[in-house]
Structure formats: structure tokens, C-alpha cells
Amino acid sequence: MIQDDDRQAIRDRFQALTGPITLVTFTQAVDPPPHTQETIDVMDELAELSDQLSVKAYDFQEDRDAVEKYHVDRIPAIILEGAEDYGVRYYGFPGGYEFGALIEDIVNVSQGDSGLSDQTKERLATLSKPVHLRVFSTPT
Amino acid sequence: MITAEAVEATEFPEMSQQFMVRSVPKIVINDDASFEGALPEGMFLDQVFEAVGG
After folding, report:
1. If residue A66 lies in a helix (H) or strand (E), which one and from where to where?
2. Contact A131 B29 (CB under 8 A)
3. How far is CA A135 from CA A38, A49, A95, A116, A120, in A?
4. Per-residue pLDDT for B4 more than 90?
5. Which of A22, A31, A32, B41 is 20 to 30 Å from the Cα of A125, by its Cα?
6. ipTM associated with this complex
7. What is the dihedral of CA B45, B38, A131, A111, to 10 degrees?
8. How close B20 comes to chain A (CA, Å)?
9. Taking 70 as the threshold, does the pLDDT of residue B54 lie above it?
10. Are the C-beta atoms of A36 and A70 separated by less than 8 Å?
């Protein structure tokens, strides 16, 4: 699904990966919602582009322990898990603009660094309560 | 302390309706505050702190 040109560009970008990262996916075999198979296919193709990347695929209906562990409530879901689960999730097919964001998130999670400025990190260290961000986008 | 999810709005129409997504990107903070459009890092941060009240 990934074009050859993009494949090479991503391979180059993934030279920056410094630690193993797992693309943990949730789909389901029975009555899958649209775009679940495409999502799996793209994750498999990404994993071929770096030795640091691997895919762990779960079934949303069958693997309830994993669903609970990763707090997944929708599919298709992708969790980027590096040295730890930093709480980064993608729901739905990560196409268009989101695909670039996914690539950069993979790099950040692999490096164990958010990529945010020192100033931002200092301010975030003062946060008084947990924050959950939902970022809605469309493929176009 | 911070978790984040990217949601493909057209694949989750009910959720998009629930959070009144009319244009993208739309960012929802703790299911309460929200803003539309991409913001520079510092201004994004201001939105987060405003939403959690410090």
C-alpha cells in the first residue's frame, strides 16, 4: 500500500530509530469495521522498513486481556509502544496527513523523547492533573 | 500524565458528532475544552493549561 518513493523516504527517516518499538494493533476478524485490513497491511509494511519495528496484532473481540491492558475502546486502533507505553494511540486508518504524523510519532517513541522544546517540557512538568488529548482529523 | 489519540473523524462519526467536530484538526482536551486548527507549540500548551486550570 505504501508507494516505492515513500518507502525509501520512510526507510531513511527510520535510520533515526534508536530503540525497539512495537505497533500494537487491534482489529477484529468477525464483522470488521471499514479500513481495518488496510490499517493492518500498512503496519506490516512499515515494520518491514526497520529492524527496530515490529507488529503485535490483537483481536478486539478475542483478546480481552490486551484490550483492558491498553484501554482500547474502538477499532481499528494502533498503539505505539516503545520502552514503555507513552499513551500514544491512533484510531482509524492513518492516511493522508496523519501518515506523516504517525511516522514522526514512531521516531519520537523509539527515541523515548517527545521532541518538544525544553521550555515546553518544563511547563508540562508543572501540570496538576492528567491530560487526555483527542485530535480529530480527516484523511484529506 | 499525558495521553493522546488521533481519531480519523469519518471512521468514527458518532464520536465526531459527540465532540461536535465541524472542521479539522479539532483538539479536545479532557473531553471538555477544545479548539480548532493547528497551533504553534506554545499556544497549544496555553490551551492545555487553560483547560486544566493551571
Report:
1. helix A64-69
2. yes
3. 21, 27, 14, 17, 19
4. yes
5. A22
6. 0.97
7. -90
8. 10
9. no
10. no
- For chain A, positions 12-71, list CB contacts with chain B under 8 A: 33-35
Instruction: Starting at the earlier edge strand, list the strands of the sheet with B33-36.
Output: A53-59, A21-27, A77-81, A85-91, B2-8, A131-137, B26-29, B33-36
Please answer whether residues B29 and B14 qualify as being in contact, where contact means their C-beta atoms are separated by less than 8 angstroms.
no
Q: What is the pLDDT of residue B32?
A: 94
| pLDDT one-digit tens code per residue, A57-106 | 999 999 999 999 999 999 999 999 999 999 999 999 999 889 999 999 99
The structure's pTM equals: 0.96
CB contact under 8 A, B9 and A87: no
Asked if the Cβ–Cβ distance from A124 to B1 is below 8 Å, we say: yes
